Amino acid sequence: MTDLHDLWHDPGTRVVLRSTETSPFGRKVRMAAEILGLAGRIERQAADTLDTSDTLRAQNPLGKMPCLLIGEEAVFDSAVILELLDAVAGGGRLAPRAGLARFRVLTRARLADGIADAALLMVYEGRFRQEGAPVGERWLAHQRGKVERGLSVFETSPPPADRADLVSITLSAALGYLDWREPVAWRPGHPRLARWLDDFAAATPAFEHTARSVA
């Protein structure tokens, strides 16, 4: 079986990221790749999750992005891709290698992912609602509760703003999405977390480098 590092460093092997500039999960991957010094190895290819002819559905049967292609290997979702990038970079840079500390980091990163997931579902409620159908207020309230509870945890204990790791990368991508799509007005009720994002952006150029440049 071909080793991951052999594939990654083989100049004949294409490494392609299927995503968009506006996906918070794709942004996570692009941010991590830049922080780990791996961005130059990755080609970017737009994906359209609603296009039935898009090859994304063959690469990831769920039809979701991001999807990282390493030669014939397809790796998804964003959490798995970040684990892979950390491994390629030597391991232990985005999360501890082992022990309880590792699982604490993984859990907090999944909480941050959950904020982005719920925010996306709030946006999708309007995007996929049939014309004339009533707004799904119960659904929106259900997702809003997830966002607000997750934000409250990070308001109480934000990660260090000067360290770009699995938690801070994931959280900053989620908050960046909230700032853009505005499914909830999160900054007024979470001033400590708002300051954290501003400080993280100042300390981590990759945050601004990966911001969307299109609507």
TrEMBL record:
Gene3D superfamilies: 1.20.1050.10, Glutaredoxin. The keyword tRNA processing does not apply. The keyword Transferase applies. SUPFAM superfamilies: GST C-terminal domain-like (SSF47616), Thioredoxin-like (SSF52833). One of its GO terms (molecular function) is transferase activity. Transmembrane segments: none annotated. Keywords: Transferase. This is Glutathione S-transferase family protein. It comes from Roseivivax marinus.
